[in-house]
Amino acid sequence: MTSSLVAIRPPQRGLPKPEQPVLKDLPATELVAWAAEHLGGPRYRAVQLFEWLHKHRAGEFADMSSLPAAMRDTLASQATVGALTVDQVQTSTDGTRKLRLVTPTDDVLEAVLIPNPGRGLTLCISSMVGCSLTCRFCATASLGFTRNLATWEIVDQVYQAQSLLADERDAAGYPPRITNLVFMGMGEPLHNFMQVRRAISILTDASGAGLAGRRITVSTAGMVPAIERFAREGLADEVGLAVSLNATTDAVRDQVMPINTRWNIATLLETVRALPTPKRRCVTFEYVLLAGVNDTDADARRLARLIEGISALVNVIPFNPHADAPYQRPGAARVDAFVRVCRAAGLQVQVRTPRGDDIDAACGQLARRG
After folding, report:
1. Confidence label for 169 from pLDDT (cuts 50, 70 and 90)
2. pLDDT 10s digits, 246-273
3. Where among 78, 110, 144 does a domain terminate?
4. Which end of the chain has fewer CB atoms surrounding its CB within 10 Å, N or C?
5. So what's the pLDDT on residue 117?
6. Catalytic residue among 135, 138, 342, 363
7. Could you count the other beta carbons within 10 Å of the beta carbon of residue 234?
């Protein structure tokens, strides 16, 4: 890849248009309205249907035993459930698992299950097939941008991972749980805003998966209009935001993340400063350390000045190498020095240990390899 890459790419295809509605695509209020029109009967049947789809993860209408047989037959003739296919599961030496998933249109995407010792698992999910952006450190950018994922295709990544874990037990005899969800896989989540918004609504519904909004984080490379919408439509009050910054000057960020040529650092940070600040939540700034590019002590001091006054956590991510990027990971001493300068300047910093890099599952490595 070269520095002449465009900032934002158009999709090769639009969202699939299935012959029958995919009911897993509908938030609860929309499912109730659909059921009233197509099924009739009392409202509680639609609530049961939602529970079967999203709490019990039923694969077929025939499995929904609390619904009348006639209703199940009607459902089977008028709609589909919607399910991804698990094509492959790779396991890292550190316990991270990468799921290769295939859509009914034969598009391939990836999700990553990351163990958190003593506190469940984090699931990293995708929002696109490929990516609309061209960040030069990220392997997904090399795939181009096939299309956005539909709401149900985002949601079902969670359910496929939950099903994978269903028969397992931890040391105490309990099934492992997905406790954290991060939209940091393939794609720019805020460039697929509507589908991501709907997926979060479904996944946090207490009648379904019931995931806690405070444990969901949406990442962005800096889609300023979408960040403004994130605030305007209330998502900033529900879930966390992670901003992939990765540089402290526009000259460097233009090269590393061409989206910066559309919305530069000053514009991006002005937008972040305008976000509402719910209690006990701060903005996360992701900072991928690239050897000799953005990892100097001067960069660390500039970073502190740039985000001064923002309630923030800085995630320092030593670059995870892959064949499509012209960068190297800094040595441990340089990483430590960068972090020390950040902390001395008053930043709250944590270093993200590479997880799953031996199976191309670490941050920035998802490119359907293996």
Report:
1. confident
2. 999 999 999 999 999 999 999 999 999 9
3. 78
4. C
5. 79
6. 363
7. 11
Q: Does the predicted TM-score (pTM) go above 0.85?
A: yes
Q: State whether 141 and 252 are in the same domain.
A: yes
Q: Are residues 74 and 156 in the same domain?
A: no
> How many contiguous H segments (helices) and E segments (strands) does the chain have?
11, 12
Q: Identify the helix (H) or strand (E) that includes residue 220.
A: strand 216-220
d(CA 241, CA 236): 7
- Alpha-carbon distance of 198 to 203, in angstroms, equals 9
Among residues 60, 110, 282, 342, the one annotated as catalytic is 110
Residue 45's domain comprises 23-78
Dump pLDDT digits (tens) for 288-310. Answer: 999 999 999 999 999 999 999 99
143 located within any domain: yes
CA gap 304, 298 in Å, rounded: 10
Three-class SS state of 142: helix
Indicate whether 61 and 164 sit together in one domain: no
Active-site annotation holds for 363: yes
DSSP string, 259-288: GGGTS-HHHHHHHHHTS---TT--EEEEEE
- Alpha-carbon distance of 40 to 46, in angstroms, equals 9
Residue 289 has a pLDDT of: 98
180 & 49 share domain: no
Q: Which residue has the tokens 């037959």?
A: 73
Contact yes or no for 101/160 (Cβ under 8 A)? yes
- On whether both 35 and 184 belong to a single domain, the answer is no
Residue 173 has pLDDT above 80, yes or no: no
Assess if residue 10 is contained within a domain: no
Helix (H, G, I), strand (E, B) or coil at 197: helix
Q: Number of C-alpha atoms within 13 angstroms, CB side, residue 188?
A: 27
What are the angstrom distances between the C-alpha of 127 and each of 15, 72, 226, 263, 265?
Answer: 12, 31, 14, 21, 24
Residue 37 appears among annotated catalytic residues: no
Are 69 and 111 part of one and the same domain?
A: no
Domain count for the chain: 2
* 3-state SS, residue 175: coil
pLDDT at 276: 86
For 185-217, how does the pLDDT look when each residue is reduced to its tens digit (9 = 90+)? 999 999 999 999 999 999 999 999 999 999 999
**Is 314 found in the same domain as 177?**
yes
